[in-house]
Amino acid sequence: MLFYANACREYVTNGPLVELAGQPNLNPLNSAFAKLTAPIPVGMVYAMEKKKPQRRGRPSRSEGGVKARGRLLDAAEALFAERGFYGVTTRQVASSAGVDDALIYYHFKNKSGLFDAVFERRARVLIGARHDSLRAYVANRAHVTVEGAIAAFINPMIDLSQKGDRGWKSYFALVAQIDNTPWGSEIIHRFFDPNVHELIDILQEALPGIPKRDLFWAYNFLAGSMMLALSETERVDRLSAGLCHAKDLDAVRLRLLNYCAGGFLAMVTAERLSGRA
Predict the structure, then answer these.
(1) Which of 53, 94, 174, 269 has the fewest Cβ atoms within 10 angstroms?
(2) pLDDT tier for residue 259 given thresholds of 50, 70 and 90
(3) Is 249 helix (H, G, I), strand (E, B) or coil?
(4) CA 162, 165, 166, 169: dihedral to nearest 10 degrees?
(5) CA dist., res. 48 & res. 22, Å (int)
(6) Which helix (H) or strand (E) holds 247?
(7) Contact indicator for 215, 203 with CB cutoff of 8 Å
(8) What is the pTM of this model?
(9) Which CB contacts under 8 angstroms, 24+ apart, belong to 203-209?
(10) Candidate from 91-95, 104-108, 144-148, 182-186 with smallest mean pLDDT
(11) Element (H or E) spanning 204, and its range?
(12) Environment class of residue 215 by beta-carbon count within 10 Å: exposed (0-12), middle (13-18) or buried (19+)?
C-alpha cells in the first residue's frame, strides 16, 4: 500500500496535473491523495495482517492428518457394523468422527473407498496373524491333525476380539454381515482366500485321500459357524434364557473348535463310508 501511495505522490507532483498544484480546489487528486497517504492506525494494520481469507476446497495435509483419518476409519467401522453400508452416509461418519466431511473425499475419494479402507485396515493384521499361527502349528508338530489345524486358524480371530481394541468386535460383525452379500463375498475373496488355502493344504495332510472338494465344502460350513460366533449377536443368550452368553469368548472358543473339528471329521467320514470320497 505504501508503494502505491508513493506512486500517487509522484504522479501528483510531477505528472500532467502539476500545473494545478497551486490550485487545490481544481486538482481532482488532492482529496483522494490526502486520504490515501493518511497514516493507518497500528491496530488496524495488525488486524489486516492477521485476518486471512478462509480457504475453501481441498483440505491441507495438516488439516487432514493421520489422526483425523484414523478417527474416520473408527467411526465408519462402528457405523457400518451397526447399520450396513447402505444405511450410513458420509456426513454421519464425519459427524461421528468430529471432522469435516470434505476429509472423507480427500482421504478416500468416496464412501466405497472409505469402506474398502475400513475393511483392509484390519484384514491385513488378521491375515498376518493367521498365517503366522498356521505356520507355527505346522513347524511344531510331527503330525498335523484336523483339530490342531482348525484351532490354529480360528484362535487368532478370538484372540484379537478378546485382547485387541474394541474396534475388532465391530470389524468381525461387519465381516459376518457382508459375507452374506454378493458384493461382500468379493471383498472376502480378495483378502482372505490365501489363508483359507493354507488351511486346506494342512487339512489335506491331516486327512490323506480326502478329495479337496469335500474339504472346501467342510470349510464353507465352518466359516458360517465361525463368523456367527465372532459377531456376538447374543441370539443364543435369548434362546437359552441366559444359560449361554455370546460374549463369553472363552466358552465360545472351546465349543466352536470342538464343533468345527467334529463337523469336519463327521462329514469326511460319512463321505468316505458312502464311497463318494
Answers:
(1) 53
(2) very high
(3) helix
(4) -60
(5) 36
(6) none
(7) yes
(8) 0.75
(9) 203/146, 203/149, 203/264, 205/144, 206/144, 206/145, 206/146, 206/148, 206/149, 207/146, 207/268, 209/272, 209/277
(10) 182-186
(11) helix 182-206
(12) buried
Q: What pLDDT digit, counting tens, does each position of 28-68 carry?
A: 445 544 544 555 555 544 444 444 444 444 555 554 478 99
On whether the CB atoms of residues 192 and 123 are closer than 8 A, the answer is yes
Rounded Cα distance between 59 and 64, Å, is 7
For the record, the C-alpha cell of 59 comes out as: 483440505
Q: What does the pLDDT look like over 126-160, one tens digit per residue?
A: 999 999 999 999 998 999 999 999 999 999 999 99
**Which grid cell sits at 218?**
467342510
Q: What is the dihedral of CA 229, 235, 237, 238, to 10 degrees?
A: -170
Which residue is listed with cell 486471512? 52
- Which among 161, 158, 162 is positioned nearest to 170, based on CA atoms? 161
